[in-house]
Write a structure and sequence with these properties.
This protein is 15% helix and 45% strand. It has 125 residues and is of the alpha+beta class. It has a six-stranded antiparallel beta barrel with strand order 1-2-5-10-9-8. A hairpin with a 2-residue loop joins strand 6 (77-78) and strand 7 (81-82).
């Protein structure tokens, strides 16, 4: 096992462990595919507007090991490239309230098998 394999294993362990950092993420694909995995989530209530002012605005992103979705048969790629356009993610916040989000941007790190996604509530960019 080389260092890349160890890093991939560690990232998968850290992000998917529900007793540590992992949180349940429910994915829904554009064709109705679904998968439930654990991953990292961040919900913050701060945004900077175009004039440099801080405003109260919910921002959420998730990060997860792509391999966790692949083993469930969930589609993450089109033409060999990660493409999560029109995919949705449902997750609970710290109060337990579940919100449905749309993946707006995705940033795959194919070296360590980690995809980070910026989410928004439908209708908000």
């Amino acid at each position: 096992m080389n260092l890349y394999d160890i890093a991939k294993r560690d990232i998968a362990d850290i992000t998917s462990n529900p007793n540590e950092w992992g949180a349940e993420l429910t994915f829904t694909g554009p064709n109705g595919e679904t998968a439930v995995i654990n991953g990292l989530k961040t919900n913050i209530g701060l945004k900077v507007d175009y004039e440099g002012n801080m405003v109260n605005s919910k921002k959420t992103h998730v990060a997860f090991s792509e391999s966790k979705l692949i083993v469930l048969g969930y589609p993450t790629r089109i033409g060999g490239e990660v493409n999560l356009g029109n995919h949705k993610v449902s997750l609970a916040d710290s109060s337990g309230k579940v919100t449905n989000w749309t993946i707006r941007q995705w940033f795959p790190d194919e070296t360590i098998d980690l995809i980070s996604c910026i989410l928004s509530i439908d209708g908000n960019v």
